[in-house]
Amino acid sequence: MVVVLNGVLADDCPTSVRALLEAHPGYREGAAQLLTETARVVGPAGVLYVGQREMAAVVPHDKNVNIIGSDDATSCIIVVVRHSGSGAIALAHLDGSGTAEAAAAMVSRVQQLAVGYPEGRLELQVIGGFTDPHRYSDELFANIMLSFHRLTVEIDLTLACCCELNTLPGGLAPLVTGVGVDIRAGDLFPATFPDKGPELPLRGARTITSGPHSAQVLDIYDNAVGMLRVGPFNYDPLRGVDLWLEQSDEFILQHLSTTPAVEPPHFVHNIRMTLKFIQQHPFPAVTVFPDNRPHFYRRDEHSGCWISVRY
């Protein structure tokens, strides 16, 4: 029993937003406040973008990162864990794969980064997802809550803006699909990220293939050296990738999205780029990571963007 709700240790973990609100209606106010804010369009300089099935952790004094965030969460949920004393933050974009492992890893990373700060508590924020026709977000919310509840540390749920609290009134669409966190102030705000960082097709390939690393939520940031880290990982060849690429945009939208009616305009383009990458690199362990080493990117001092570096 480690999830804290409104300052009280929960005997039972709510596994739906409705159950959460019945016991603690105050969470509605927090969600409503976030929904009143206009989404910021965040440029690439100083941004650490976390994609689907990825996570990253940072500290306020990191000179390479100003904002950490993610977007395009329709049926997915973005999770933020923060230590109030040190300001250390972990953010993940969860889609239902590797949820329990990701929850444990996020808490562990934040605890490591908060060493030396005796004061402070762990805080949990969950944003994204909506009342979709198949209730994917509802199931994901339940799994996220249970995953944190089963850990051996107390964590205070400070914001829940997801599922029915994040659904357009009278319609089946999410209101907030992306958030950013100012790592120095600790402020969370609705956001979109036109630039999602390097090697996006490679990073996205894991989510539409199978294989030993496809279900994992990967940590993409190396705090020790202040670098964005991609891989190494492998995935299985995608059967019929040539046939997929021959299909219409509408066919790809309908068959490769859990929520085709609410995907952003760039969804199909990004999927096509990912499919082309998989077509060109069916065995990434051979052609992309032949030395089994990560691809590292450091922050360029002039542009503020990530540039490739040998490390």
UniProtKB/TrEMBL annotation:
One GO CC term, this protein: nucleus
GO molecular function: protein-N-terminal asparagine amidohydrolase activity
GO biological process: ubiquitin-dependent protein catabolic process
InterPro entries membership: NTAN1
Parts of the chain that traverse the membrane: none
UniProt name for this protein: Protein N-terminal asparagine amidohydrolase
